Structures are given as C-alpha cells and as structure tokens.
Amino acid sequence: MSAEGWYLIFPDSPGASIAMLVVLGMVVLYLARMPVHQAIRSITRVLRNGMRLTARSLELLEKRLVARNREVLLSAGREAAERVVEREFERVEAAVNRDLSDYPALHRRLSASIQRIEEDYQSHAESPPAPDDWVHAVDTIAKISSTRDTMTKVLKDIQTSIERDQSTALEEYRKATNERHRLLSRAMPHWRKLVKGIDSVSVALNRLLERSRSIDRYMEEYRSIVRGDEHAERALSSSSITQFFIAGLVLVIAVGGALVNFHLIARPLQEMVGGSAYIAGFKVSQVAALVIILMEIAMGLFFMEAMRVTRLFPVISALDDRLRIRMGWAAFVLLFILASVEAGLAYMREILAQDDAALIAQLAGTDTAVAGQQWITAAAQMGMGFILPFALTFVAIPLESFIHAARTVSGVLAVLGLRALAFFFRLGGNIFHHLGALLIQIYDIAAFAPLGIERLIASRSAEHKASPRAKVAEA
Amino acid sequence: MKLKTLFIAIACMAATACSAPADHRQGVYMLLDTSGTYTQELNKAQSIMNYVLAKLDSADVFAVARIDTASFSEKDIIAKVSFDEQPSRANQQKRAFLENINRFVKEVKSSTYTDITGGLLQGVEFLREAGTGSKTILIFSDMKEEIPAGYVRDVPLDLTGIQVVALNVTKLRGDNIDPREYAGRLEAWRGKVERAGGQFRIINDLERLESIVQE
User: Fold this and answer.
1) Under 8 Å between Cβ of B142 and B38
2) Is there a domain that residue B14 lies in?
3) What's the CA gap between B184 and A321, in Å, rounded?
4) Nearest CB to A364; choose among B22, B50, B87
5) Residues 18-47, chain B: which have Cβ within 8 Å of A?
6) Cβ contacts (< 8 Å) between B53 and chain A: which residues?
7) How many A/B residue pairs have CB atoms within 8 Å?
8) Exposed (0-12), middle (13-18) or buried (19+): which is A455, by Cβ within 10 Å?
9) Cα separation, A468 vs A83, whole angstroms
10) What distance in Å separates residue A360's CA from the closest CA in chain B?
11) Domain range holding B169?
12) CA separation for the pair B96, B89 (Å, rounded)
C-alpha cells in the first residue's frame, strides 16, 4: 500500500473505504465525546476564570488607583490653596505694614489737628454784646421834662457820650468778628489734613476688607478641598489637565530656546575640548554644551526655589531665611558667570564662523566678501548668549506645574488603561466561555449519526417504559 | 542593597560608555594620475580635493599622492596632514595643504607609466598606519594601468574596511572604438578590489561627491 492510499481500507473501492472511515471516525468521536466535552469545558472554564480573575484584579487596582489619584489631587490642591492663602496673608501683612504701620503717628496728627481746631473754635466764639443797663438809665433821663435848659444840655451831653461809646463798641465788635474769621480761616488746613488722614485710613481699610474677602473665598475653597467635595475634585482635575497642556507648551518653547542656546555654544566649545572626542556616541563638545545648559537650568531652578517662587525642593524651602537668600544669591552669581561665559562663547562662535566662511570661500576659489555689519551678528549672538540663560531660569515655573500636573494626568491615563484592560479581559473570558459551548456543538455535529441513534434509542426506551404506565392509567 | 544596585548601574553605564569606543575619524588617501594627457584633468582633481578638505573635520587624516611609474613609495605623497583637535588650527592646516596642492598642480610633470596598484598599496599602508575609523582611497584616474617591465604588482591586496572610489574615469580612444574595453577595465578593478575585501564605487559626475566623505 502506497503512502498516498493509506486510507483505502478496501483497495478496490475508495468510496466504501471513505464511508467506512467516516463511520469509524464518528464512532471514535462518539466514544470520546464525554472526555472531550469535559476537556473543552475545563480548558475554557480555566481560561474564562483566569481572565475574569485578572479583570477583577485590574478593577480593584483601578479603584485603588482612583482613590490614590484622588488623594494626590486633593493633597496637591490643598497645598496650592494653602500657598494662595499664605500669599494672601503675606499681602495683608505687607498692606498693614505699609498702610497702617504709621497709624499711631497719623492718630497723633489727627488728635493735634482736632485739638487745634477745638482751640480755634473756642477762641473764635462770639463775644457777648455789652450789657444794656445804661439803656434803662437813658430811658429814665429821657422821661424828665426838657423845659429846662440845663437838663437839655445834660441830656445832650449824655447822648453825645452814649453815641461815642456805641461807636467805640461797634468798632470793637467788628474787630472781634474779623479776628474770629481769621481764626476760622486758619483752621481750614487742619480740617483738610483731618479729612485727608481719615480718607487714607479709609482706603487702607477698604483694601484690607477686599483682601479679607479674597481670603474668605480662598478659605472656602480650601475647606471644600479638605472636605473632599466632588466639585472641588472636578475643578482640581480639570485645572491639572489644563495646566499640563499649558506648561507642556511653555516647556516646548523653552526646549526651543535651549536648542538655540546649544547651537550658540557647541561650536566654540570644540576649540576647548577638541572636535573629535566622543562620549557614548556624542561629541564631547556637544555633551559639554548640554552640560552647561543643564547647569544653567539647575541654577535657575535653585534661584527660583530660593526665592520661593517654586517649591520643587522642600529642603531649600525649609532652610533658614538668611541661608536661603544667600543660596539664592550664590545661584544668581553662578548663573551670571555662566551667562557671561556663554556671551563670550557666542562671540567666539562668530569669529570661528567667519574663519570657516573664509576657508570655504578660499577652497571654492571665490573672494571672501567681508560684510560691514558683522558686528550686528556678533552683538546679537552675544546678547542671546547672555539673555537665554536668564530666560531659561523661568523654566522652573512651568516645570513645576508640569511635574505636578503630569502626576494627575498620568494617573488618569493609568486608570483609563486599567479600565480598558479589565474590559478586554472580561470580554475575553466571555468569549472563551461561549467558544467552549460552540466547540462542543461543533464536536457533536461531527458525531451526529451516533448521537441521532442514541437519541432514537433513548426515546424508544422512554416510550417503552411509558407505555405500561399509560395502559395502567387508561385502565 | 540600594547602594549596591546603584553601583552596578553606574558600572554598567561606564562599561557601555568606555567599551570599544567607535572611532569617528576619517582617513582619505587620494591618488592623482599624472600619466600622459591625464594631467590636463588635474584642475578637476583640485576641486575634488577642495571639496574633501571642506568636508573633513578635526583629527581626520588626508593625504594626496601621485600615480607615476612606480607609485609604491612615500616620495609620491605630495601632501599629507593629520588635522588638529581644534577646528581653528585645522582650518590653518587646510590652508597650508591647499597651497601645497596648488604648487604641485602648477609644477606637475607627466609620467610615462601608470602604477595604480602601487599607489593603492601605498594608500592602504598609509591608512592602516593612521588607524582612522573609516578609510577611503580616491583614485583620480582613467584606471588604465601601465606598469614598466620588471615591476611586480600581482601581489595580494588586503582592502578590508577600505572604500575605493574611482573618480573621473575618462574614456580612452580605444574605449570609444570598443566600449567593452572601458566596461571590462572597470569590472576588472571592481573584481580586484572586492576580492581583496574592499568596496568599489565609480563617480564620474563630480556634482555627486556628497557620498565620498561623511559629514
């Protein structure tokens, strides 16, 4: 028998051989049905349970991560709110120191002004008119008969004397009135000073009130965060994602600046460290340029940290104020030196670029055109070399925001990833479960004939068993 | 435990950085055919040399030698330079090199024979001694070798790791009559170089010199 005709049980009749093989195959499948069913069920159950277990574990992990993210978010929010409130209190302190520190002096000035005004008021009080007793005497004398000349003369003298006295009194009264007016006009500046002083106090108090309202608002936010309110969490999450993108954008811009800086100093550094030395596949000059830029960024970070603009290093924030300020100065001085070095390197770069251009022109056989405005390029490069390190200092602010926001964003992404993974594992478990049932059905289709016979026999047997009972029932 | 891990990590990094550092230096050895009427083509060779000079960097090595009757000799090296680490000094060296070459082109005299293989052997020796990372031999010639009687040039070559570039391979009168001669000559050189473990290329269009020297 050749290898090709191995299946020919009856060599003369391939059809009969195939039919025989099919029948045998069905019988074998029928006989192995139960163990195969059990094997399929076991395998799919193991896979399903494994996947469901994994999905469950992932869900639990997701829940823990969500809780952890929430803790981190609220903690970061709380810290930020504390910083804002602290800053507001610092502003209030500054305002109080600025506006109300001289309040005792102002109070003294106001008291002096009030006293002066009071004195003036007292002194300018209207003097009472002269007593009018002599008017009654005049009336009495006037009632005496005026037939006698002597009497007439006496009366006339009295009249003359009275008119003179009256004129004198009137004159004195006018003088006194003028004096009072003068005193009143002298009190005017004191009044103005008083009003101004009171106004300034009023402005300072209004400012303080405004600040206190801000503090109240921030404190309310802080309380909301401490309570762990949902809206506070949502606001913080949204703020974090926004911060992540904004800070990321600013960092990309900063990277652009750093690249420009890098190209400014990489070429001249070849003159110092050589142009052919390599470290880990990179030119030493490029590594040196990168190190200088990274040092500048580090100095910028320390400076910002020492100025308490950022809080990336708790150790620096916790330093004694004097030491912290000294550290800030040290960082600034180093930054200044590095910036000066960069300016020098940028100038050197221009000289080297001119030399290269001259050589290329010589090699190309063309004349070197010396531009008259080369000093502009040199000055621009020097300026950039000096300014860019200081500009990079401000990278600390977006970097801090980015790092803090990245924690939240990465947490959210991890949660999403875990959720998706759990979903796929659960889906996979269900697929395996139904796949097992499907495989069993397909297996039974392959052994349909013996199964049909089995069912037929089973139904006959059932009928056979049922028929005596039916007869009994009919009877 | 942490310190140990840190130490191992640092040691691994140091080993990665220090083990077998790749040599980025380039070595270029240029052979100039000065036989017969080919000397008239030397102006083109000059522009190629200028191009190579412009592209080479600090610590690279460059030498120019002539192909004459017997080229396996240091005397045939017209100018050689190993550029300084400092780019500005390398520029000065390039200027001096350029002057040497210009002087040679003005004063060059034709040779009777063309010993390309001898020049190739000399170039290999020079580049192996320089020990640069990449090694290139530029042959500015029509690739028609004519060796005087008595000179043995059927010697085994070792061109492993060396790139041989034939430049400005002009067609001779015989090539015009039977182009198979030209193709056969180039194929013979290709076979010779590749059998010796080298790479062979032909650049006739001098506008396409970019691939000769790496940036």
Assistant:
1) yes
2) no
3) 86
4) B50
5) 21-22, 24-25
6) 363
7) 55
8) exposed
9) 94
10) 6
11) 25-203
12) 11
* Neighbour-count burial for B26-58, b at 16+ CB within 10 Å, e otherwise: bbbbbbbbbbbebbebbeebbebbbbbbebbbb
Token reading at A408: 């939240």
Structure tokens at A152: 């007439």
pLDDT by residue (tens digit) across B152-177?
888 888 999 999 999 988 888 888 88
The set of residues, in sequence order, having a beta carbon less than 8 Å from that of A419 and lying 6+ positions away, is A59, A62
Per-residue CA distances from A432 to A40, A104, A368, A442, B133 (Å): 10, 85, 78, 15, 58
Q: Which residues pair with B24 in a beta bridge?
A: none
Contact A278 B25 (CB under 8 A): no
CB count within 10 Å of CB A408 equals: 21
B116/B141 Cα distance (integer angstroms): 9
Long-range contacts of A95-99 (CB under 8 A, 24+ apart): A95/A204, A95/A207, A95/A208, A95/A211, A96/A208, A99/A200, A99/A203, A99/A204, A99/A207, A99/A208
Which of A277, A279, A363 is the closest to B50 by Cβ?
A363
ipTM: 0.78
pLDDT for A129 equals 57
**Tally of structural domains, chain B:** 1
Identify the CA nearest to B65 among candidates B40, B113, B29, B102. B29
Total-model pTM: 0.66
Q: Taking every pair of C-alpha atoms in chain B, what is the biggest distance, in angstroms?
A: 81
B-chain residues within 8 Å CB-CB of A271? 86-88
Closest Cβ–Cβ partner in A276, A352, A363 for B24: A276
Full DSSP string of A99-166: IITTHHHHHHHHHHHHHHHHHHHHHTSPPPPPP-HHHHHHHHHHHS---SHHHHHHHHHHHHHHHHHH
**How far apart are the C-alpha atoms of A231 and A228, rounded to whole Å?**
9
Write out pLDDT tens, residues A181-197.
Answer: 887 787 778 788 888 87
Cβ distance A291 to A262 under 8 Å? no
Tell me, what CATH number does B37's domain have?
A: 3.40.50.410
State how far the Cα of B55 lies from the Cα of A192, in Å rounded to an integer: 84
Phi then psi for residue B4, to 5 deg, are -65, -45
Residue B59 Cα, gap to closest chain A Cα (Å): 6
> What single DSSP character describes residue B41?
G
Chain A residues whose C-beta is within 8 A of a chain B C-beta are 267, 270-271, 274-281, 352, 355-356, 359-360, 362-365
Asked whether residue B178 is assigned to any structural domain, the reply reads yes
Domain-embedded: residue B7: no
Return d(Cα B97, Cα B76) in angstroms, integer: 16
The answer to whether residue B180 sits within a structural domain is yes
Instruction: Name every chain A residue with its beta carbon within 8 A of the beta carbon of B51.
Output: 363
Find all residues with CB under 8 Å of A228, minimum gap 6, and list them: A70, A74
Pairwise CA distance, residues B195 & A305, whole Å = 66
3-state secondary structure A313-343: CHHHHCCCHHHHHHHHHHHHHHHHHHHHHHH
How close is the nearest chain A Cα to the Cα of B185, in Å?
A: 33
Q: How confident is the model at residue A262 (pLDDT cuts 50, 70, 90)?
A: very high
Q: Which residue has the higher pLDDT, B1 or A22?
A: A22
Say if the Cβ atoms of B50 and A365 lie within 8 Å.
yes
